[in-house]
Amino acid sequence: MEKLKKYVSVKDEDHFYHQGAVELLIFNFLLILTILTIWLFKNHRFRFLHETGGAMLYGLLMGLIIRYVTKSPDVESGTVYECEKLKSGPSTLLINITNQVYEYQYKREISHHNVNGHQGNAMLQKMTFDPSIFFNILLPPIIFHAGYSLKKRHFFRNLGSILTYAFLGTAISCIVIGLIMYGFVKAMVHIGQLKQWEFHFTDCLFFGSLMSATDPVTVLAIFHELNVDTDLYTLLFGESVLNDAVAIVLTHSISIYSPKENPNAFDAAAFFQSVGNFLGIFAGSFAMGSSYAVVTALISFMHLTKFTKLCEFPMLETGLFFLLSWSAFLSAEAAGLTGIVAVLFCGVTQAHYTYNNLSPDSKMRTKQLFEFMNFLAENVIFCYMGLALFTFQNHIFNPLFIFGALVAVFVARASNIYPLSFLLNLGRKQKISRNFQHMMMFSGLRGAIAFALAIRDTDSQPKQMMFTTALLIVFFTVWVFGGGTTPMLTWLQIRLVPVGVDPDEDLNAKAASQSASNLDKNTTKAESAWLFRIWYGFDHKYLKPLLTHTGPPLTSTLPGWCNPVARLLTSPRAYGDQLKDGDTDYIINNDELTENYEPSAHIPVPAQDSTGSIQATGKEDIQEGDLGLGGYKLQLQHTACQPQKNSLA
Amino acid sequence: MEKLKKYVSVKDEDHFYHQGAVELLIFNFLLILTILTIWLFKNHRFRFLHETGGAMLYGLLMGLIIRYVTKSPDVESGTVYECEKLKSGPSTLLINITNQVYEYQYKREISHHNVNGHQGNAMLQKMTFDPSIFFNILLPPIIFHAGYSLKKRHFFRNLGSILTYAFLGTAISCIVIGLIMYGFVKAMVHIGQLKQWEFHFTDCLFFGSLMSATDPVTVLAIFHELNVDTDLYTLLFGESVLNDAVAIVLTHSISIYSPKENPNAFDAAAFFQSVGNFLGIFAGSFAMGSSYAVVTALISFMHLTKFTKLCEFPMLETGLFFLLSWSAFLSAEAAGLTGIVAVLFCGVTQAHYTYNNLSPDSKMRTKQLFEFMNFLAENVIFCYMGLALFTFQNHIFNPLFIFGALVAVFVARASNIYPLSFLLNLGRKQKISRNFQHMMMFSGLRGAIAFALAIRDTDSQPKQMMFTTALLIVFFTVWVFGGGTTPMLTWLQIRLVPVGVDPDEDLNAKAASQSASNLDKNTTKAESAWLFRIWYGFDHKYLKPLLTHTGPPLTSTLPGWCNPVARLLTSPRAYGDQLKDGDTDYIINNDELTENYEPSAHIPVPAQDSTGSIQATGKEDIQEGDLGLGGYKLQLQHTACQPQKNSLA
Question: Does any CB of chain A come closer than 8 Å to the CB of residue B8?
């Protein structure tokens, strides 16, 4: 019979009522400090420590205080229990103590070697919150915001390159890190630095996949403030957003991968099953996310055709929008798919269709709401990462492993960016310059996603070691590379507007107009693929009229015999509001579009349509992270809520 | 040795990753249903079931489904454990199961007679979430919103009556319910309906205090839509908001009350200690809430006097505002005070001082954010109340007790409203009419606060019976009285605007202008007490200039020798912006004000000042619950962000 110790913090009746308040207060305090610091930094144009780095630093200090200053009053009162009848850890446990039944809930597994640590410190235990909070509450707003604020025109212009970096690049990165780490682990076992743990190749690949998720937050915030070249911005933004999705699905697929015999041997069947899993999960999540967005678009579209106008109740509209988007995430998770991928594509689709149906008030409300949630969630995560270094109780620091991981991460990033850029440049008219490649290499920070993937599973010792290593790599990259972004940009001569010109000016507007003038120059042949053009035509002719008030009326795009149905489905505004179609902003070339569009159109597109769409782009573009600039106009046109009856054809 | 059973739900590794997603999805689904229903109801002008009633109904149905349709796969696998060494329920439990240590967290106490019920249904367990979530996350936004959206002018005009109802009325209600329930319990024990539980008089008082918290949500939402008489609205709003605070502190004080000997005997020392507790907690919470608001005001004020302008970063400003307000709640809770009271007064103070300092963008952002959070939190709570009837596992239904409680609640409400109205009418010029009194009697719904107070403590059997009873009374009052509000208003001939005139019109503006014209007519002598006038003078002369940009410059109100300090502390805008002082809207009478203000003012108030303030009232008034009406203009004046240098004296 094993001897166990009891590490018990006595249930304090007096403080029972205030449970949770102190922990939340600590987070609030950290966030307030962070905001005040950001304000100070912005004021002094101090860019060497970004807000995320600051949040992490404060978290770190707070963790230090909690760990070494607060008492751990429960360690002494330790005596414990053996439960012989239990065969596995149940999720709920009923225990009879002095004739009263208490219910206990499963929290986590604890490794033996760590039981003696700071186990008894109740404060530490309370500060380490459930990983499911990360995944269900903190991550969705960040990812959704990324999708919702995607600059469509630039994104689609560079779609080919972005997809290459995101899919192929992440796969390369994962495999390279996996291989290097496997070599390192073998060597460490050989020289006796690592004991006979079961550190399989799949574990190394798992680590590789989670470390392949790059974080857009820090670098892009700086890019945004400094008005860096829009193409570089879009490449990095698109890559890091999609790459998160790919890395998450990859991690999930690898954790399912289970070869039958020797775990180190290559099992073709299991491998293909994993690839199948990857594709299935990705496609399923994509479908789940998009369909929720389509439902939202349909609901918000319906209200204008009927006499009920949902847009008269901006609160309901915003609430529905918010809840349906979150449901996309939760449904995907509940169905065993990947919520992050679902919510990302939900965001993209919402911006593409639903956004056009919203009332002007709701457009602004949703934008500000998601911006705010994104801001809070981001800073909470970075504070928590700082805290976790001292409050998480099962760290395993292995300097050699950490060093190896650091090397692996850089080699992997290099073998992702440089070869792929070389290949892409073969097809691109507008080459990705050497300096851009260096900047992309430099921008491979690791952040929230890598951390969240690592903390999801810390049951076994290899996983704990991976978690500790991932955390330290996040610290290192955010502080060193995040802090070095501005000098690096100067050094590589990428920045467009010198520091100190006029930071109060609306950089977004400038960027938009500047990029608009570059529109034709930057057009690359490789990107405007036929598949994309077919999709665009289909979207413009059928989906947009069906789901939004923009685009040509369905009656003109559908065959004649569909006319009664088409008339029913077309919004009255569609006839008159073609001018307002701001979503043509991802058209590669206006000539290409009309060439593809005109043959089946019964009503020729009026000349002012295309000019109108170009003028509208700047207005309709969702600008991301208006954190410091807040320059958008809040003037609303309430007329948009009423169907324009006089413009009915 | 006692025999125990093990009710264990096997930890499913596959579903471990998705934990929490399904439960959140259920709530999302309920909320989406509720929103769609509200939309439908609003469209058909169907007012017999309010949204809160609808949310509760959906929750009830969902609870029914979860309880009786979902499988409870864990009941069969029951075998269990005795832990002889444990003397009390620890908050954390380490258990060694087949050589692996697992950590378990204390969840709750379970009464013996309930262990056999639906204990094993994991779904039910997951749906009953922690009461601390109510208190720390769901309630604060609702209460803060109430304080933030208080219509100051009407509130202060009726302050005396509101305070009487809130303090004296709640105390009366608590004692009456306590006495009646004590009689009922005695009688029930006598006829053998109730066993020898220890149902002391303090328990009855505890029940009385928690049942005295009336809920403003349902009735006021209907009042707001129907444009009911503003004085009645304000009386009910003020009463129900303050009454919640009083009831919470009262419940807390009673739960601390511990007479030394016989718990049924009256212990003068313990009683006075409880009264002292009540006053101390109330005053402390008030101070805590206001001081956080003052800090926020100072921070947001600072930015305009220095070259750093926080209002250029609306996101930071909004974030700081949100976090500091929430911190007021959490600090009060952590300090053993009452967070709800703190956050209420924090809201009132924020609206009074900080709101004036915010940039126009932030003004709207904060208003919309808190409105949205209030909307979501409210509907989550009402859904959850519906769910709780079937998912909460320790209900004790006692029909006699429930009947007694129902009677007690009505008798208590009657002995609160009618006698106090009679007394107040002795002093009021504008009497509270008979019909108003009936309507106030009728509007005594119980809601979120009563429920939250009851669910906070369900460890013992009397407390469980109280919880069940409270829940059923909430159902009854929300459905019957909430649904009956519209007919009752018609019957009592209180409604001002007949149904169906034009609900799309901006009722707020109409109400504001109408009430402005009634300003002089409604002035009552009893309300404009000297204490209030002194406070107003102090606030206007010293606090407002110190904390906001409104009011007279400090240099004119402070004595001459304070001039250097005063000049330092006065905002440059204060000299020029006196016209914009919209917060004089709670002045009882402009003549009274100037009479009180002029003697010490060095610069005479220009004539257009008072006219300006009257014109500004409609604009600056924070309108509550713009849920359906959304009629405010979103045009911002960016000029407010820049100090008007030309207007410097």
Answer: yes
Half-sphere exposure of B602 (CA within 13 A, CB side): 10
Note whether A579 contacts B: Cβ–Cβ < 8 A. Answer: no
Residue B620 has pLDDT above 80, yes or no: no
List, as one string, the DSSP characters of B543-588.
IHHHHSS-SS-HHHHS-GGGHHHHHHHS-HHHHHGGGG-GGGGG-S
ipTM of the complex: 0.74
Interchain proximity B314–A630, CB inside 8 Å = yes
pLDDT, tens only, A339-356? 888 998 899 888 888 887
User: CB of B22 within 8 Å of any CB in chain A?
Assistant: yes
What span, in angstroms and rounded, lies between the C-alpha atoms of A590 and A596? 10
User: Which among B524, B197, B148 is positioned nearest to B348, based on CA atoms?
Assistant: B148
pTM > 0.80: yes or no? no
Q: Which domains does chain B have, with CATH numbers?
A: 132-293+394-498 (1.20.1530)
Sheet of B92-97: strand order equals A92-97, A100-110, B100-110, B92-97
Query: Is A31 close to B319, i.e. CB distance below 8 A?
Result: yes
- On whether any CB of chain A is under 8 Å from the CB of B365, the answer is yes
Q: Nearest Cβ partner of B10 from A4, A88, A334?
A: A88
Strands (E), B49-170: 92-97, 100-110
At B46 the three-state DSSP class reads coil
Alpha carbon distance B368, B318 (integer Å) = 11
Task: Kindly list the distances between the CA atom of residue B418 and the CA atoms of A247, A623, B179, B365, B472, in Å, as whole numbers in the listed order.
Answer: 67, 58, 19, 42, 25
Chain B residues touching residue A103 (CB < 8 angstroms)? 106-110
pLDDT in tens, A550-582: 666 666 666 666 666 665 555 555 444 444 444
Could you report the per-residue pLDDT of B580-592, keeping only the tens digit for each? Answer: 444 433 333 333 3
Residue A549, pLDDT above cutoff 90? no
Asked if residue A397 lies in contact with residue A468, where contact means CB atoms within 8 angstroms, the answer is yes
Residue B341 DSSP code: H
A 185-214 residues inside an 8 A Cβ radius of B:
none
pLDDT at B9: 32
* Average pLDDT over every residue of A260-267: 59
Q: How far apart are CA A440 and CA A236, in angstroms?
A: 7
| Six token digits for residue A481 | 């590379």
Structure tokens at A456: 């999801």
Q: Which residue of B has its CA nearest to A111?
A: B101
- Render A219-237 in DSSP notation, one character per residue: HHHHHHHHT--HHHHHHHH
Tokens linked to B179: 């006495």
- Least CB-CB distance to B28: which of A130, A313, A323? A323
